[in-house]
Specification:
One of its GO terms (molecular function) is ATP binding. Helix content is about 35%, strand content about 25%. The chain is α/β, with parallel strands linked by helices. The longest helix is centred in the C-terminal third of the chain and has 16 residues. It binds adenosine-5'-triphosphate (ATP). The site of adenosine-5'-triphosphate has 11 residues, from helix 1.
Length: about 240
């Protein structure tokens, strides 16, 4: 279970998150949506330790992550796939995926076994393993990033706008791959601009605006909510208590 309570924080002393809170059940998919600049990416960066919250607490499976470094947080099993591509273009698909194991002190044999497991899970990894990552399409690169994040068998994966800039066909592959990671028991917390995509995948949806949660519910509750359109087009209700 991921639990963020009353989190305040942002960049250079300026709060972007103002009393943000969320509970994500173990094994579920939760999607955060909201207008541009609402602070969605800031939530993920705060959870992965890139940003330090000024106030509030971040607890995952009973472990308090507040104030831990990004590397310590990865070691607890919380791994982020950032919005901007982070692959090494001149390395092969396999080399990029294997890099996901670098913070681990596991024996090389175990990492190779994990790689084979992931190659079985993501057909693209098996098929294109020897190709340079720079030769792949945007959607294919995302899958490599997913596999790299899965190398450490994380309990939580944070996805920052996984469909950004992708065509419908690639979005469908991302949809399927996200479900596959979740089916392996990984809890997924994602941020999406594409509300339709988020709603189609998530068990629960969190709508945020101006650094706080304004709506929360199942995907169908949020899809049918009368305030949803207003939140995106400028008639936001007051943040809830
Ligand atoms: N590195 C940074 N330094 C200073 N301010 C930042 C930085 N990154 C983001 N911000 C500001 O924080 C606010 C929230 O940004 P954030 O990226 O979390 O929003 P978002 O909801 O993910 O929006 P988008 O969908 O546009 O990415 C914005 O006003 C943004 O300008």
């Amino acid at each position: 279970m991921i639990s963020l309570s009353d989190v305040y924080g942002g960049y250079g002393g300026l709060d972007i998150l103002s009393g943000f809170g969320i509970q994500v059940e173990k094994g579920s998919i939760n999607c955060i949506v909201g207008p541009n600049g609402a602070g969605k990416s800031t939530v993920l960066k705060t959870l992965s330790g890139v940003l330090r919250p000024r106030r509030g607490s971040i607890v995952v499976d009973g472990i308090d992550l507040t104030g831990m470094s990004p590397t310590e947080i990865i070691r607890t099993g919380v791994v982020q796939v950032p919005q901007r591509h982070g692959l090494f273009a001149t390395l092969t698909v396999r080399q990029n995926v294997m890099m996901g194991g670098y913070v681990d002190r596991r024996a090389a044999g175990r990492l190779r076994a994990r790689y084979e497991e992931l190659a079985g899970m993501f057909p693209l990894i098996a098929k294109r393993s020897a190709e340079r990552a720079g030769s792949l399409s945007g959607g294919q690169r995302r899958i490599v990033e997913f596999a790299r994040a899965m190398m450490l068998d994380p309990k939580v994966i944070l996805l920052d706008e996984p469909t950004l800039g992708l065509d419908p066909q690639s979005r469908a592959v991302i949809h399927e791959s996200t479900r596959a990671m979740n089916a392996m028991g990984t809890t997924i917390l994602m941020v999406e601009q594409n509300v339709r995509f988020g709603l189609s995948l998530a068990d629960r949806v969190t709508v945020m605006s101006a650094g706080a949660v304004v709506l929360e519910g199942t995907a169908s509750e949020i899809a049918d909510h009368p305030d949803l359109m207003g939140l995106f087009f400028g008639h936001a209700p007051e943040p809830r208590e």
